[in-house]
Amino acid sequence: MLDWLNGLAGLLVGIIVGMTGVGGGSLMSPLLILLFGVAPATAIGTDLWFAAITKAVGGTVHHRQQNVDFGIVGLLAIGSIPAAILTGFVIWWRGAQTHGGASLATALGIVLVVTAAFTFFRAPLARRAMALSIRSHRAFPALKSLATILCGVILGTLVTLTSVGAGALGATFLLVLYPRRLSLSKLVGTDIAHAVPLALIGGLIHLMIGTVDFGLLAMLLIGSIPGIILGSRLSLIVPEAVVRPLLALILAFAGIKLLV
């Protein structure tokens, strides 16, 4: 019975990801911890593999459609990959399986609340960034590149530690930094392309630590694949203005539950 419930969880998360592009790590990890009683480290490690596999499929599609800005992906990776490796070493050193469970749950709760805020206020942030970009008469490519690398460091740390951030936070960072350079499709494609190697490295680190449940992963993937397809079709019917605030409330609730 539990296996089918895991598949159902994958289906529901897949639908939300297909509709909004957000929610893979943000929803799956707290769902596994709060509803299924999975240990925080195992939930995060398994979810990183879930994200790496599902986003690899989406990233391939976006690459074929030329929706990936590899210049930006490279800048993000300069910061995120070393940060992910360093964070993984810290998790291993602290003992994720035995001593780090409470700390990981707390970190996940904090990141979920922050992600909820970014998700809820994404549209106003986008309008503000575009207005500033239009009014600006000078470009600071070196400063923007440095800011992109710094964002990569933040994402690498958060994703490896909590499996959350590559979608909602990553897309918001890109939206603020490159409001005119990236169209909506390129924003999503670039964000996904960067998330794949980042999630894979985080997943490999958790695999070495021993915090990945591949049986659970298989059931999640069985549900998520049709879910993503269905969600993509529903996105043409259900307005994002309705779905995104609801998603933000769910993320905030899950984050608070993990903190209290």
From TrEMBL:
Its main location: membrane. It is found in: Cell membrane; Membrane. It is a multi-pass membrane protein. The chain crosses the membrane at residues 7-25, 31-50, 70-92, 104-125, 146-178, 198-222, 234-256. GO terms for cellular component: plasma membrane. Keywords: Cell membrane, Membrane, Transmembrane, Transmembrane helix. Belongs to the 4-toluene sulfonate uptake permease (TSUP) (TC 2.A.102) family. This is Probable membrane transporter protein. It comes from Stakelama tenebrarum. The lineage of its organism: Bacteria, Pseudomonadati, Pseudomonadota, Alphaproteobacteria, Sphingomonadales.
